[in-house]
Amino acid sequence: MTGEIFSIQKYALHDGPGIRTTVFMKGCPLTCQWCHNPESISREQERIFYKDKCIGCNTCDAFTKPDLCPSEALKYVSRTYSPEDLFDEIMKDHVFYEQSGGGVTFSGGEPLLQVDFLLEVLKLCKQHDLHVTIDTCGFAPWTSFDKILPYVDLFLYDVKHTDSKIHKELTGVANDLIIDNLKKLIEIKDIYLRLPILEGINDTKEHLEEVKKLITSDHVLQVNLLPYHNYAENKYEHLMNDYEFKPFKRPSDEALESLESFFVNQGIKTVIGG
């Protein structure tokens, strides 16, 4: 059994408690118009091309052999791991997890798209008492959640929009399954509820009121407000696919503070960023 991983970020500080290793898994069922990791969307192996690095040698044989490119102008986006190889990579920073109360976070993409591979890695993590966090968009069968629940300490759960029609326009899917899964999960597992914030899209009082209605247990430890940024624009330029970068607007600091106050005033720990 193998899994496709497009990035492993060491010393991560914003994907759960403590110092963490964040594993970014390939494949996502959503196509968010503001996606910050477009290289995560497809489950398939992809290539990325940096034209300014190309020396025109054609060693890559017309872009078909990225692993032969001497200037690293052409690369594969991801790498294939076995559960054991990925776990070994995670354990290289075990000392930092122990010292900081950290652990490993599986993100993406959507980790639950590779649920059987993920499950095998999680079993290894829990055999060594690692703190495990899953960053999910929530769009997966509940059976996938059920498989991994015994091995997960914390979920980072995205709520992109509470209006199902708007959600589908923005992400390609309705939010019914996402909300249904959240209602189940919120009763049994600790959650950081993560709200991407785009000016004029999901920064409205109506949206926040609907989010507040979803917070029905003390398992929601905090809300994270994630302001839009355009750092991924260069990825769209270099990826050899048809994904189109669509710019949105970042809300002002004042607007973000107002959103933060909405939740704080109702006794909900809220963090801008993270």
CATH architecture: Alpha-Beta Barrel
Rounded Rg: 19 Å
Instruction: State the name of the first-level CATH class.
Output: Alpha Beta
What is the global morphology? globular
N- and C-termini, Cα separation: 32 Å
Q: Roughly how much helix do the residues carry, as a percent range? A: 25-40%
Provide the residue-averaged pLDDT: 95
Give the ordered list of helices and strands.
EEEEEHHEHEHEHHEHEHHE
Extract low-pLDDT stretches. none
Q: Domains counted in the coordinates: how many?
A: 1
CATH topology: TIM Barrel
Classification by helices and strands: alpha/beta
CATH superfamily: Aldolase class I
List key phrases describing it:
274 residues; alpha/beta; 9-stranded mixed sheet; two-stranded antiparallel sheet
